[in-house]
Structure formats: C-alpha cells, structure tokens
Structures
1.
Amino acid sequence: MSHEPILTARHVTKQFPAANGRLLTACDDVNLTVCQGRTLGIVGESGCGKSTFVKMLVGLLAPTEGEILFHGDDITKLKGEALRQNRRKIQMVFQDAWAAFNPKMRVVDIVTEPLLNFGLIRRSERAAKAQELLEMVHLPKEYIDRYPHSMSGGQRQRVGIARALALEPEIIVCDEATCALDVSVQDRIVELLVELQQKKGISFVFICHDVALVQSLSHQMAVMYLGNVVEVLPGHLVGTEALHPYTQALIGAIFSTRMDFTKKIESIESEAPSPLDVPAGCPFQNRCGHCMERCRREKPKLVEIEQHHEVACHLFSR
Amino acid sequence: MKKKHVLFVSFLCLALLIVLAAVLAPYLVPYDPFAASLTDALKPPSAEHLFGTDKLGRDLFSRVIYGSRASLASALALVACIFALGSVVGIAAGYFGGWIDAVLMRLADMMISFPGMVLAIAVAGILGASMTNAVIAVALVSWTKYARLSRSLVLKIKGCEYLAAARLTGSRTGHIMWRYLFPNAVPTLVITAATDIGSMMLELAGLSFLGFGAQAPMAEWGLMLSEGRSYMQKAPWMMVFPGLAIFCVVVVFNLLGDSLRDVLDPREEE
Amino acid sequence: MKRVSKAVAAGIAAAMMCTAMVSAAAQEHLNFGCYMYAASFDPAAYQNAAWQGMRLGVTEALFRFNDDMTVSGCLCDTYEVSEDHKTWTLHIRDGVKFSNGDDCNAQAVADSLQRLYNVCAREEYSSTPSTYIDMASITADAEANTVTLVTNVAYADLTATLCFPFYTIIDVEGDLDDESHDYTESVIGTGPYVVDSFDVTTKNAELVRNENYWKGEVPYASVSATFIEDDTTKALAIQSGDIDLTENVTTASDLATLEADDTYYVSKTSSMRTGFAYLNFAGVLGNDDLRRAVCMAVDGQTLCDVTVGGMYTYGYAVLPSSLVYDYDSLVYAYGYDVEGAKKLLDDAGIVDTDGDGIRELNGENITLRYITYVNRCLSDFAEAIQVSLAEIGINVEITNTDSDTEWNLMQAGAYDLCDSNWTTVGTGDPTAFLLNWYGDGGANLYDGENAEATNYCNYVSEEYDELYEAFTASTDVEERNRLVAQMEQVLLDDCAVLVHGYYNSAFISNATKVTGAEISTIDYYWLSSDIKPVE
C-alpha cells in the first residue's frame, strides 16, 4: 500500500437555488484529499455540507464550481457510460439501511446486483458470490435468502457494506453509516471496516457527527462548518492538538464512554446560522469566543500549520 | 379464509365463467348467429328461440352468447393497450423528469381535455368504423389515466435512497425501470385495469351503438342494442337481452376489480 | 246569501268562459311534428327549400297533382297550349290574394316566375327550374289576367311540370332580382298558412292562419311545426300528446303500434317513391351471370312484408305499380329463386374452391361493396340482402353512412350496390328519374368531370337509349306511356337495377283532436285546409 493521494477535491463549491432568488451554499471552496488505504473522516453539525460533499464524490451531484481529480482525471466531467464505469471505483454505504434497499429484493439479489450490472458474473454464480460477500462482512451464509427488513440494524449495515464491496472499489464512502446503531454495534462495524481496510487496501471516507467515533477511525479528520473546511488533522491528534475554536468546542462537547467524567461539558452557545445567510468573513464569527475584527471582514483560508495539519483561522495565520 | 378472499374468488369464478362462455361460444350456441331466416323475423321468446329472433330472423340467444366474444376480446385488448402504453409513458415521465416529463404530461393533458366519446367518434370517423378502430379511438383518450397513476407512483419512490444506491452500483436506466419502478407500480395499475374492464366494455358498446364500432352483421351487444331500438315497442326482447348481458358482465368485472383492490390493499387490514 | 250566490254564479260563469276560450284556443291550434329538410323557405334557394313552403301550406303552384297523378288547376284555372306545344297561355284564377292582401294576379305570377329564373342563374341559388322548363319568355296580360309562357323546347304537358315546388308563386312585390328581399325565414304565398316565425337553427316554424285564403275558411288559427328527426320520437311524441299530427313514421313497429290503437288515424298510401339499389356495371356486377344470381337470391316480397314491416310494397319494376305504366304487362325472369341462383353460378363456373364459403370470380373471393344509409328503411334492406347473398356464397360489406357521403361515393363509382330512394314522377312523368339509366352511347356516364351527366351506374343499352330519345321527343301521352313501359322491360331484362319496392308514405293524426289528415300520393302536400279540428 502506497498511501498516495488518489482523490483530490479542489475548490469544490455547491450552491442550490432557494426561494426568493437566494442561494443556499452547501459547500464553499472545499479542498480535501483521500489517500490510498487510508480513512478520511469528516465531522460537523447537521447542515454543514458533509453529505453534499460526498454525494459529489460519488457522482450523485455535480459541483457548481471546482474539480474532483481521481487518479488525475476530473470525475465531475464524466457523463453517461463513462460515469457509470467510474462507479466501479467509488462506492457508498448509506446511513439508513431501511431505505437503502429495495424492499422487494433479497440479500442475494442486493449484493450481487452491482456485479450483474457490469456483467462480471453470470446469474448462475449469484448464490456463491453472495455467500462470499457475506463472509467478508461476517454474516452467516444462510442470510442470502433473507429480506433486509427481517434483520437487525447492524446486520443490515453489514449487508450494505457487502454490497459496497462487491465491485471491489478503491474508495468507499460511509455516509453516517453507523449513526442509527447501538454503540456496541457501532464498534463492531468500525472494527469490520478497519479489518477490510487492512486486508484490501480500501480507502474510506467516513462521515459522522460523532467526533469521538471518527477520530478513532480516521487517519485524517476534516472538520466542516457551514460548508467550509475549518480544520484538517490526523485523527489520533484531535483530542490533544485541535486548534480551531470550533474543533475545540466539538471536543469539549463530546459525551462518550471513554470521556473524563470529572471535566465539565462545554456546549456551544447559540444555533448555527442558516446556510442561506452566511455572513461575510469567517463563518464561525458569531459563535467564536476569539472573534476579532478581522474575522468579520476577511474569510480565513485553510493553511498548513504543520505536516498533515491545516487550519482556517485568523488566530493562526501570519 | 377471510371474507374478502371469498368474495374475490367468487367473482373471479364468475368472470372466468363468462370468459369460458366466450371462448366456447361456437360450441354452446344452438343456432348459427349469422344464419338469417327472413320469414322468422321478430318472433318472441319461445322454446325454439330462447331469446326470440331479431329483425332478420337470427336467433337472439346465439347472438347474445356470441356477442360476448367481441365485447370481451375488444375490452381486454383495449385495457391491455392502455395499461402498457400508459405505464411506459408515466414511468418515463416520472423517472426522467425535466422536459420529457413536461412534454409527456402536456400530451396527456391534451388527450384528457377532449371529451372521450367525442374524440373517439372523430377518430372512428376518420379511420372508418370497425371494432379495431373503436379500440384505437378509446385507447387514445384513456391511456392518460394510467400514465398519471404510474407517474405518481414513480415520483413517490424516486427520492428513495435505494434508487440512488441502484444508480451508484452501476444500474442502467432500463434496469432501474424494469426492476424497481415497474414492479412498484404494477399492483396499483393492475387493480385499476381490472376495475376498468367493465367501463371500457361500456365505452365500446356505446361506440357500437352509435354506429362507430362494430358493423353489421357482427354479433356485438352495443350494435344489437342499436338495431333493437327501432323495434322497442314491437319486439322489446331485441334490446332487453343484449342490455341484460352488458349489465351482468360489466357488474361482474366491476365487482371483481373492487374485490381485487380489497385483497391487495394493505391498509384494509383489520 | 244572495250576494254570495250571485258572486259564486258569476265566478262559475267566468271559469266556464275561460275554459271554453282556452279549449277553443286549443282547438284552434295544431301541433305538427315533421322532418324539416330545409333551413329556408325560398323556392330559389334549393330543392328542399322549395318543397318546404309547399308542404307546410304556405305556398301554392299554378297546378296541383291529384291522388291518381292527374293534374288539376290551382292558381291557374284554365289554359291553352299552342300546336307546337311551346306557347302556354295560363289564366290566373280571379280574386286570389296573397296572405298579405296583395292581389295574386297575372303580373304578380309573371314576376314571381321571372324572379325565379333571374336569381337561379346566380351561383348562390341552387334550384334548377330551367332543367325542367327551358323558358324563353314570361309575359303577363293584365286585362285578360293571363300569363303566357314560351318555351324553347316542346313539352308534352307543362301543367304537370308546373306542379313542381320550384314554381310556387310568391309575392316578390315587383323585386325581380332580390335587391331588397330575403325569403329565407319567410315567404308570402297564397296557401292557407303564413309563416309567423322560423328559427333557422332549430328549424321550428310557427304558422298562423291566412285570413286572405282564396279557398275559404282556414280551420286552425295557428300551427306549430316542430322539427323531429327521429321516427321513434315522432311516434312517442304523438302518443304523449306533444303533437297531434305527424308524417312518415318509418319504423315499422312504431307505425304498427299506432295503427293498432284507435286513438290514432293512420292514413297510408303507396307513394311515388321507389327504393332501389344501383348496380355498378363497371365492377364485378358487370358479369351477367353474377348479377342475375344476385337478383335471384333476394326475396323482395318477404323483405317488404316482414323485414321492413310493410313500409314498402313489393314490386320489381323501377316505377311504382300504381302508376299508369301497365305494370301487369311487365315480365321479370329473375325473381326470387335461391336454388336457381346457385345453379346459375355453378353452371357459370363461379364456385367456391377454397372452402371458405365464398365463391370466387377470376380467382378472387367475391365481396360486394354495398353503400346504404339510414333513411326510409334502406339500411334494413341492405342488411337483409347481405344475409341473403351469404346464403348463395357471396360476401357483402356494408358501409352505412349519411346521404351526402353516399352521394359522393356513388359519384366516385366506389360501390357495387348503392341504395337510394327517389320520387319517380316529380314532374308528373319519369323523365328525370329514367335519366339514371340513359347512356347516350356512353356520353351520359359520369366520369368525375362531366357535371351534366346523370348516369352513375355505368349501364349502357342501345335499346334503352333509343326508347328514351323517342320518349322525350314525343308529345302524345299514350305513346309516351307505352315507351316508358318498354324501357322498364329493358331494365328488367338486363337486371340493370335491384328494386326493393315502393315506399308507403303515411300521415298519422290523433283522431280525437284532428280530422281530415289524409296523405296524398305525391308528398308535396302536407298541411292543407282539409285538416280540421274535431268538432
């Protein structure tokens, strides 16, 4: 495994037209990199643009501006059959396993559908291949004839992962894939992902609003706020070396089994502003305890402070 | 077995009986439905002629039985046509959206805005009066219902994640339509189709009555009603029996459609 | 008490008077339901408009037909004709007035006829008075009260022609070119009734009594003539009392019901109309054996008696048997004989070789295109003939259409059989009707270009043509009748036309309210002063 960057998002912006001629900016000038065999975690509050961003990664949405280079090729420009073929390399596991499967399809059909779509197996080989995939995600072989709605939440997610694995993609995006699960089940899923990464060298893009979970899993973690990436740093350093006031606030508000129960939980005051009315300057200005006059005028750029650590904050810029 | 299943099965049996009568008609009829005996015209019902004879001396019972073939065959063909055409158009419009949706739905709006019978008469007038053309004419105005229905069913699941997942995993459009959209729409459409058989039969009989569908000497109930109209006072059996036949068959198929809906509709669970 | 009883008596008297007045008024009003063939009363507009005025008793002509098709004077009482039969001097009855009080004298008559000829030369008027009378001049002699007509061609009997509705006399008030008159919604005539109002869209007319009627008292103060298209509706309307008089209920069962009920008086007569099917000699029916077999397969008697329930009287000649053309002397070799028809075809080699029940001619199944329309039972004949021909192995395809489309298809020659129903002696003799089969050596066959042609069935017979030319040249009535009978025989010998029968027209009246409603032989006359309320 080379751990080289295989996918780079550059200046990716996504805007939606909203009522009264206003624009909703879901992603604003996002620059992120996914490395081979590594996990990129993305955290942030609801509405911060992480889901929108990964939808652009997998080609379900097209960016308003910017490019996404996969092995050097801009995949945002792909259309038709080329786009379809590209799908073999980038797959997704959905958040809601209830909705992610056609209720009329059995597990065997669900997990082998991608292979049939590209003509990689014959219909007669479906059962065998499905069993193979289920084995990879540690599900019993008999489950191939079951319907997803007759399985537990955790098992359903495993099926989702099995489907994503079917085409042997290079990148798998997990869009809040564990949020609906119990904590214990969450951990097991995370273990599975780690195992798969080690065995097959898959890169993951892992989205979650649970910072604690993400940091344990990610090699690089990106923090997003109101469509902007405000900080990127290695996962294991998040607790200790987070610099951006928002990241720190997130850490401070964590409630997990491993936390220090003697420390006070600092919650962030006030609500996040609406992405329709993003103020000029730093997006975090209204809630930041360290807000300066410059912050209201000028939007901070994402700048590399140390190796593998970038921050977008005037406190740390020259 | 639940009551609704009992009802469904009984109506299904009745409908099958009617279909059987239509299929086996050549063996069931006591006389040749087209054999005329001019001197025996307008005879009232008797032991020899169960339903009497018509103005050309043809046995009315045989003609009524035979008429089930024309009426049923054309009604079923018509429903099959509009089902197929309407579903395809509706699914395409719902799935692709954009200008395809706009064009197809404006087309549907256009067809709906014509009063059905009038347009059907105009088409039959241009193409010539025959059973085939009557089916075409009625199909032209009736497919829109299925298009709208299937479109709304598609729109319901269009936003579902599993459709996005299907596209993500490389499904082609045709695959999505066939494996996802169509099976989702089919149950509702089938219920609509079953209920429609009765009303389509009435439309076709109506066109034949007006002279735009079946032509003499075909044995078709609507046409027989029209022929009997001039003899309403003198030989009422010429209208009564074909009218009864239409009534019974339409009622059976309507009830069949209703009971099918009861059986398939999950919300009817007690 | 006395005051009260006086008041009561006065009240009762008043009520009785009112009732009497109402019933008298009701007695004086007639509700007539009929088919209206025209949206105009102007005799120059088109044929049906000319007939309308005459039928509704609004206009009259110089002469009139009796029930035996002889001629009586109407507005003209005496006349003289020159030796060469080209100058006709007609004396106008003295004292006749138009309904508006104007004198109907020789000048008025001459003006009316002159105006007719003047305006009919224009495109927008479709009546063709010059087809029947090729007029050279019309002059009036006011003193003698005579009108002198000079014709370019010699006519055997112009008086019969002058019975035709084109020549009804209307008050043109000196306006010979319609500069200030429009006769669409009403005309001033000499008949018993006057048009009070006419709705061109609904074709309903309200008529009132002509106070100046020359024949005398007009029984009804007013008449409502309501347009009823459907025969069953006519029957139901008279049964429900909405109308008290109606004409021509052509659905046999409805007519039979009315005949069986004493409340109604049905006056029936065999009319001058023949229902028949043209046979296209340019199609497969040009084959003599096939054509003869087709004629032999049809049981005309049963069709008339049973299938159309007596609405037609059976006959095989083109002219009604009640006319003076010696029907009994005619011989028809191709009457109903099913076995004979089959044998004829078998002998001619027209057989069914592929077992589908249909005989073949020149290798193709014989399918005859039969055009008909729903009027006066014609489509019933067509359907019955279809089954009759199926019995001998000939397939028939019926196209049931309206009379306009039928006319177009016939002109285009797109038929093998084509139904029609004609008044045969509209001008007193069959000159116009017999033109249907006049070939003129081929010149009279319609080919799409020659609008003058009158033969649409492609039948040419030298013998017939000679007889016809002799007929038109002759002015001797006896000789003409003989020639007509001979022409009929030629058509019978050649099986040139398939005759269904002679149409019976009828007048139906509510016998409790109306009396004197007798149908005339020729259906020019419906409303007349003979129709009165029951006393």
2.
Amino acid sequence: MSRESTPSNLLRSSVDGYGFNKGENFDHESYDEFMSRYISVLARRASRWQALIGHKTRVSKSRKVKRYCRKGIPSEYRAMIWMSITGAEARIRANPNTYRNILLSQRDEHLSEPITMDLHRTFPDNIYFTGTEGFRKPLNNVLVALAHKNIERGYCQGMNFVAGMLLIVLKDEEKAFWLMDTLINGILPDFYAPDMRSVKAEQELLGEIIRWKAPELHAHLESIGVQWFLIGTKWFLCLFADVMPVETVLRIWDCLFYEGPKILLRVAATLILQNSSKLQACKNFSQAMDAFKEVTTSASCIDCHEFMKKCFDELGPFPSAKISKMREECLKKIY
Amino acid sequence: MAGRQGAQRPNGATQGKICQFKLVLLGESAVGKSSLVLRFVKGQFHEYQESTIGAAFLTQTVCLDDTTVKFEIWDTAGQERYHSLAPMYYRGAQAAIVVFDITNQDTFARAKGWVKELQRQASPNIVIALAGNKADLAQKRMVEYEEAQAYAEENSLLFIETSAKTAMNVNEIFLAIAKKLPKNEGGGPTQSRQSGVKLNNEQTQQSEGGCCK
C-alpha cells in the first residue's frame, strides 16, 4: 500500500498543527497514512462529544466521560475538558487573583534564574517558542509562578516541556498555571521534588511491572546491564512530552488528567512490551539503549488511536490497588 | 532489519584492538554538554539546544593507531537537583569530561565540585578532562585560561578549551582522553557489565560518524 509521490505531497507543511517543525527525520509516509484514517475517527468523536456537552462550559466526571477521554478528546473541546476533569477550572474560580498576585510579588532570583536559562531551550523547533513573541514569555510566567507557589519544589527541568505543551493546547497562561499546579499537587506522584525520590521509584516500579508481565525480557535486559533508571527519567518527568509524537502525547494526557498516573505506566509498559522481540534480540548494553530510543518514535507510536487502545486492551490485568502497593514497595527501596 | 551485528569482515583479517569505554559528561546547566556531544557524534550544532532531562546515551568511535576506541557516552542533565542521579551515570565510568562555560565563573566553581566528587567517588583510575567550553565567546571571558590550566595541573586533569559552536578542539578532547585510557585490559576496574570491555571483532558496529576516515 505504498503511496505514490503525488503533487499534493509537495504541499506537505513543514510545521504540524501544534507549531512543531517536522524535521528531516519525520516519517511522512506513516503520518499521512495514519491521518487519512484518523480524520474519520476524529469526526465521529467530535459528534459524540458535541452530543454529550451541548452548550455546557464544563463537564463533571462520569463513566461515560472517562470512556470518552480514553477514546480521545477532540481538539476543540480539549482545553475545556482538561480544565474541568482535573478540577483546575474550579480552582481558578475559587482563586481568581492568585496567579496575577504571584507574578506581581517580589521574585526570588534563585528560583527564576534556572527558568530563564531554559526558556530558549524549550521546544526550540516549535514556531511558537522561537523569537520573543509567542509563548516564551507566558512560559516564563507560568514556571516562575509555579516555582514561587510551590517553593519547596521550585523549578525542576522537565516542567518546562509540560508547561510548554499545556500552553500550546490551552493558549492561556493562567489556565496552564492552574492545570500544572493541579497536576503537581493532586494528580502526579511527587515527581518534581528536589530529592527526585518519586521519579526514581516510578522507574523501579516500571521495572517491576515488566518483571511481572514479561519475566524473560526483564531477565534478559538485566543480564546485559540495563537498569530501569536509565530508561524512564524523561518519560515520567515530561509525561512523554518531547518524547512521543505530539498527537499521542495529547491522547495520553486525555487519560492522565482523568485517571491519574497509572496511565503513564500503562504507556511505558506498552512501549516496552510491543517491542519485546526487538529488545530481546539486543546482544549488549549499547544495542539495548539504541532500541529503547526507537520505542518511543516508531510508526506504531504515530498511530495514537491504535496505540492507546493497546495500552488498555493488551496489557492484561493492571489493578490500581496492586500498582499502588508496588509503588510503595519501590519507594521504600529508594533512600 | 533488526540485527546489525556482524561487521562482515573476511575471517582472519584483523583490524587491531577494539576497546570500549564508558564516558560521562558533567557540569552546570547550559554550559554546552549536549552540544559538545552532538558536535562529536553527529558533527552538528544547534544554537538553541534543548535542555537534557535525565540523561542521554550516545556512542561514537575514534581510531588511535591500531586501536579502535568506542565511547559509550552519558550526557547528563545539569540542574542542581539532578545531582543525586549523577552517581548512577558515573559509576563504573573510565572517563569523564567536566564542562564549564568560560564566560561564567560560577560554572567553573561547579566544575571543581564535580572534579572533587569524581576523585572521591568514581573509579580510582578514571581519566578526567576539564573542558572550558564556549571558547568562541572569548570576548566575554570570565575564567582565565591560566587559572583553569593551573587548577587542572594541580589535579592531574586534561584541560582543553573547546567550542561546540565552531567545533574547535571537540574531537581533540575525546582523542586526548582516548590516548590516556589504558588499552590493554580495557581500563580500570570493571564494575558493571557495560564498561571497559575489550570486544571481539564481531561485536562491533559500524558507526557512521567516521572512524579511520
């Protein structure tokens, strides 16, 4: 089913719908093939969501909404749904002046300096983050406000990519601030804590999940020197932003914001398990590290719809209670 | 297309020794660690290089006389809080490049901190190189060459000023390290499987980046 090179290919934009330059390694073939199918999925989802929401400006959580989130939120509703289901929208209403006041108050140089340094190093290949216009200043504001509101955590590299992606979708810095604050304080494990204990533990937990789901693969990877902390730091700190294709990241976040961090483990485990034969074939450490780089960018990650289905359908039982217990065990091992 | 092991070489044709070393880059945020690696491995430079989260793994090979030296490179994140992750990357490393920015005194102080930590906690035979990066910005220099060189001498470090932007001394610093590494038994104490092993010829991979070219 190879597609011929038609004149329309010449019209391919070098920038995607979210402002990212596609770059020379962009897999146009897989992407076009996927988009031609995905467009009809999007249209169907949009009409379902429209029937559900009507003219409402917020939604409450329900089984139906959860199911809909798993199938993807159409871009026109995404900002509103994210703000509703996380509770960030309610927090803005309850604290209408907080964001502005934090930005107006005295700034601690120690908190702001590392942020300034990362502004031009966040999505440098995205048209909204190059130059002085666009999202660079809002990004600075969001990160500075977050660091000052959560002083004990401050700024952790990785937050810049998450906040940047939120700005692209929400197009509103106050909303991005509140959604991110809600993530940090209510939804995610304490990934951005200065001791990084939680993010280390989460990677151990990923290892334990692989041991549980694919003991042979786990044993093989350990035998060639792979340690789990080498794999997932960026996956968890960036919530897959700047790791997986953009559309896929947004689909992951549709579920993350509703269901919580277990979805990150589902994604991570699926990435590894769907490449288990490739990983199993690695003969040494450096081959394995190269293979791990490819697991997040392969064609199967571009098809976000199929990929998300896999995360839920093909992983087998994944009970929250068990995962939480395993997480606690892993945390105990990290000092 | 999965397996690309096997350098398809006629039996018996030897190409000398092949040694593999683990190398880690350490240093303050935004001094140019990733840029040095990108220049060395891919010959590229981006004015705005993304911040590294966690660490990135890359490999590159250099040739020294009859020895092929394969570097397994860990490029680490520079932010202070990532410090607690660093030992996981420098453990078992045979070489380290500690990078500072010649236009920023603080980054030199931080580099000294890294050197101290490596001398205390890394493998005893680790080869440490100090890189004064951003040498193309000499007009904004805040760390004198002599100052850094004196410090390097006191601590038996290699010292080179580099510019990832102009490519100045980038290959040279890796070559200088390669020269200093012991090539007999593959280097110091091998604490982990992936470090310091002499490979059989058939295990090598061709690298595009230009060994022996």
3.
Amino acid sequence: MNANNYLVLAAILFTIGAFGVLVRRNAIIVFMSVEMMLNAANLAFVAAARITGTLDGQVTAFFVMVVAAAEVVVGLAIILTIFRTRKSASIDEASLLKY
Amino acid sequence: MIAALIGLPLFGATVLLLGGRRTNSWGHYLAVLMSGSAFLVGVNQFMKMVSLADEERSLTQHLFTWIAVGRLEVPFALHLDQLSIVFVLLITGVGTLIHIYSIGYMEHDENRRKFFAYLNLFVAAMLLLVLANNYLLLYVGWEGVGLASYLLISFWQQKPSAAAAGKKAFIVNRVGDVGLSIAVMLMFVTFGTVTFEGVAQSAANANQTTVTWIGLALLLAACGKSAQFPLQSWLLDAMEGPTPVSALIHAATMVTAGVYLIARAHAIFDLSETARTAVVIIGAITLLLGAYIGTAKDDIKKGLAGSTMSQIGYMILAAGLGPVGYVFAIFHLLTHGMFKAGLFLGAGSVMHGMHDDVNMRHYGALRSFMKITYVTFGLGFLAIIGIPPFAGFWSKDEIIHAAFGQSILIGLATLLGAGVTAFYMTRMMTMTFFGEARWEDDVHPHESTNTMTIPMIVLSFGSVLGGLLLLYVGDIEHWLEPVVGFAYPAHSVSNTVLIPITLSVVLLGAGYAWFKYGRRPVPVTAPTNVSFLTKAARADAYGDAFNEAVFMRPGQHLTRLLTFFDAKGVDGVVNGLAATVGGLSARVRSTQSGYTRSYALFIFGGAALIAFVLLLVRL
C-alpha cells in the first residue's frame, strides 16, 4: 500500500481539526479538534518515517504523544475551572483578557 | 591657636543657627563674646609676633590634607604672617565693635538672633579668607563672605528691594568668582601647586603670558568682591541691608578682600607689567566714578557707598603700583576700615533717630540733637577728606605720592579724587548736621543708646589717631615689607610740594560744597532741572541701565529662545515619538479582542501565509 495515502489522510484529518477549532464554541469540542490535529501530525510523522526508512519520525511521534497527554491534563483542568465559575464552556464568553 | 580665631565665631554661628528660638534671649551676647574672644586671641598672637624677629614672624598651622588627587595636593593649612595679622585685628576689632553696636541697632528686630548668627558666620569666613595658606582655601573663605553678604543684604527679605539687592550682589559677585576660579586652575596647570608659597616660588620661571593672564583673572575676582569698575553696580544696592552690615561688610572688611588678594598675589603682579597697569587703570576709573556718584546722592548710605567704591579704588590703584604701593594700599585699607565703619555707624545712628529716613534732604541742623554722633561723624569726615593729622591724610597722601611716581596722569586722577571726596563729604556733613531743620513735625531726633555710641566713639579714636599710630609707632612700611616687599617711589613729586597742593585741592572741594549747600537753603525735594552730569550721577552713571541693556535683556531673550527650542524642539521630538507610538498602538490593540477563535484564525492565517511564501520561494 502506498505510504503517500497516509499523508493525504493526515492532511484531511488536520484540516477537519483546524476547521473544528475555528468554528466551534464549546471548549471541549475545540479541545477534541486540537487533539485531532495533533494526531494528524503524528500520522504524518510516522508515514514520513516509513517513506524515508528512518526512525526520526517515529521518535517525534512519541514526543508529541507525551506532550499531548500533558496538555490534556492542563487544558482540561483549565476548562473545568472555567466551567465551575462561569457555568459555561463557551470559549467566546471567556474573553476578558483583552485590551 | 590660629584655628581658634576661625573656630570661635564659627562656633557662635553654629550654636545660634542650630539652637533656634531657644537662643533668642542670649544669642547676641554669645555672638559678641565669640567675636570679642577672637579679637583677644588675635591681640595675643600679635603681641607674640611683635616680640619675634622679622623672619620668624610667619606661622603656619597645618590642620589636615584637604584634597589629595594625583598631582594636586591642597592642605587645609592656616598661615599667619604680618599681613594676615593686621587683617585679623581689623576684622575682629571692628567686627566686635559692630556686634556691640548691633545690639542696640537691631533691638526691636524680631530676627535679631539670626542677624548675629550671620554676623558671626561672616567673621569666621572672612578670617578663613585672610588666614588661608593657599588660593583654594582662600576661595572657600571668599565664597563664605559672599554668602554672608548675600544673607545680610537681604536680611529684611520682606522688602522686595532688599531681596533683589541681595540677589544682585550674589550674581555680580559670581562674575568675579569666575575670575578667581580661572586663576586657581591656571595656577595648578602652570605651577602644579596652589599654595601662596609654591606659586610665589615657581612664578618666576613661568611663561610671561600665563602669568599675565593669572594676574588679569585675579583682577577680575578683585573687581567683583571689591565693587570695582565694571562690576561696581551691586555695592550701591547693597545698602538695602541693615546699617551695621554696611559698616562691617560693605565698608571695612569684605569689600577690601580684593585688595588683600592682589597684595597676597604680589608675586604674580610683580612679574607682569601688563596686569599691574590694568589694576592701576581699574583703580583710577573706580576712584573717580565712585566719587562722582557720591556727589549727587541724597541717600546718606548710598553717598557713603559711592565713597567706599572710590576709596577702594585708591587701594586697588596703590596695589597696582607694585612694591611702592602694596604697603600703602594695606595702610589705607586699615585707616579706611576704621573711619568708614565709624561714618556708617554714624549714619545708622542718624537714621535711628530719624525714623529710618535715609534722605539727607530731610535732615539738617542735627548737630545740636545728636552731639556724640555729630562729633564722631565729624572726626570720620575729617579723616576721610584727608585733613592732617587725621587718619586718612597719612594713607591717602602716601598713595597720591606713589601715584605721581608712576605717572603724572594717574597722580592727577588721585588728586582730583581727593578734591571730589572733600566735596561730597562736606555736602553730606552740611546737609545732615548744619543748615536749618528740614524734618517733619512728627520726627523727634534723639541721640542713640550707649551700645551704639560707644563703638562710634572707639572708632573715632581710630579716625583721629589710626594713621599716625600705624605710620610712626607701628612703622607699617617695615612691618609689611617681609611679606609684600617695599620700595620708595623712584622719582615722584616731593612731599613738601605735594602736601600743600593736595590740601588746597581738598579745601577747594570742601569750600565749594559749603558754598553750595551750607550757605544756601537745601530744597526738601531734589531739584529736577539739573545738568546732565547730575542726572547721570543720580542714576549711578547709568551702570545699571548699561547692564540691563547689554546683559540682562539679551540674556532674557536668549533664555526665552532656549526655552522655546527646548519645548518645541527637544520636547517636540520626544513627545512626537511617544504620540506616534501611542496612536499606532491604539489602532493595533483592537486586534486583541479576547476571542480565542480569532487568535486561532490569525495563527492559521499566518501559518498558511508562511507555507505559501515557502512554496513560492521554492518554485
């Protein structure tokens, strides 16, 4: 099976994720979209590793997983705290930090 | 022991200034005590000095090293020799008498303690000036007396005229001080030292031009402090201060500091003919200018101030004559210190009895109301116009004699000055004590209290005997000779010819004044249809008008221009930059909306742009 197909799939998944980040208001959905983009990137790394026959892409994919896990912990904690104080998970309402 | 001279009055000033109102009741006694004990210390030192041989008479007390930076080493050392000791005795002696006089004169002033604190401060600073052993330390005393003078001229600062006069004295003196600082710097650069001794030793090997410039810079300093042309304008306004201040600072001591400076720096002036000539010319101009201004003043103190200018002109002129003159400059300084202080105290006593009116046109016939003042003032009058055997005769005659030795023109100037002096002093005397009474009915002239009359009486002894004693008993020529040098004038008019001529000129001036003011009634208001010369003299020979037109107005325009440039130019650039950045930021900050999705769009947009550009570059 041609490895380039995986790259195309990664691009499709990344676009869907980016679209989700831009258009959805619910913080959880936005978060899920971010995860999707990360995993699309992982897929691209692994596919690239397969094409070039080296391990670099695979190693990077592991790094991304670790960072993503850490990010989930912090991000979910923030979202929960915001939800508790504002009774809403809409990211448009959490817009106090501005000029 | 020398340090005690300065320490005593300085202690008095410190206690009175820091002690505040608690010292109000006894402050003036402490000040008198400190000044008086400094005088006793001075007398003690003088007695010791008299018993020593000529070459052992100069003492140096090294207190500590004041400044030691690289090549520059300035000791804080005091030097007492034949020249300083006469100044010490004059300053503390006349100073103490004026302290006593001030007890009575300032009795009703609520700030009397402050006045005495400043007087003590002045005495300390003046003693530091004459006791310093180097030019830099002398500079400290020089500025100290300037400060005391400023504080005391504007002592009645609630009067705008007094406040302005103080400021004027301060500013004009700064011009002279620039001269002194330049001289000190030149000395350091040229000789590598600023002590009197070091400068005197190395001056002979130095470049002639440099020495001349040092001399001229010192002359500028002397002009400022001694109110010599062209820096004379402050002295007449300085009469706004209380009269004891005029007597002590602006007649007897501080204004003669310039003469001291020139005599002290004689090593410089001995080497430079040009600098000496400049000194003589300045002295001659001032002695005529001051006397001329004195002839038209109706204000008794301003008349005396003009006279002070003129008499210091004599001293400066004598100092410029070189070794034939230094001794007589100091001699005239001493006699003048006594009789002029006496005259000022007399004027103060008259003012005290006349409700502080200074206009002589409101006086007249006071001789029977103020007998002591009349007699003491009269003795001072005889001394200043130079009637033998009173003090001024001896010193002024020696100066005229030495001046004729220099050149006929300078000699004639001093002779003319003597005549004009006789004129304005006789005018002052007749307008105040003779003629008919011209005061208002509610004025009751009366003699002053003992604290005021006793110093006047003591000083009048100086006016009578000072000259004789100094010349014949003190042998002032040979007393000062080891310090400043002395030579008889080489070829001058013989004294047997000169004295009768001088006396007849003096009598001519006095007689003319008597004819004009003694025999005719004096109008109560000053006549306005007078000659141009009188008008000019009343306006201080337009010295103020000149300074105002040439220095003050252009200066004000310059500052206005600079402020404009500062506000619009320098501030304009800085403020404009800030305004641009601020305006731009106001526009940019609207992108900080706080909406996460909007930021995300920027990030994606940016990333897409970069990707697009990368692709474009590769293709």
